[in-house]
Each structure stands twice: as structure tokens, then as C-alpha cells.
Fold this protein.
Amino acid sequence: MGAVQANYMAAQICAVIVNILQAVFKGKGQHPKTISPLDFIPDWGGGDDSHDSKKSTPSKAETVDEMKEFFQQFTRAQSKKKKKKGINEHRRISSKPPG
């Protein structure tokens, strides 16, 4: 079995699960949209979008400075988490042995 067939089979399973869950948990008077397996298959190369009703607009390419700023913000956020985690772990550790 090829990768395309495997992806489509997985997409079919996902679509069935979502459609069942929508039918079970729909609100009174609601008619949820039926989900197609094609809704779960990504378009990796800008191929045929005939199954997609909403056309995406081409996005602006990210500049090197924008990428650098994103990773600096990410690093700062991770550093804050590590510092906070270290403080919390220190509070839990007792110098007395258990018992």
C-alpha cells in the first residue's frame, strides 16, 4: 500500500469519527457540516484545491529578523519556565530525611 492510500485510509477513519461525534453531541436544532476525508489531507505542494471551498491567500515570506525575534522570545519564555521550575522543585526538597 502506498503512502497516498494510507493517508486516505487514515483520513477516512478520522472523518467517520468526527461525523459520529458531531451526530452524538450536536445541539438541539443544529445541523453540523458533514466532514469529508479530504478535510484531513494536507496540501503539501499547492496542488489541486478543488475540494477546498475556501482559497487561502499566499502568505508573506518571513524575514530573517522576524525569525530571529521569534526564537529570542521563545528562548526567553523557556528560560523563565526553567527558573520557575527550579524554584518550585527547591521548595519541595527538604533537608530532613523522610520518616
In short: The chain has two domains: 1-43, 62-92. The radius of gyration is 24 Å.
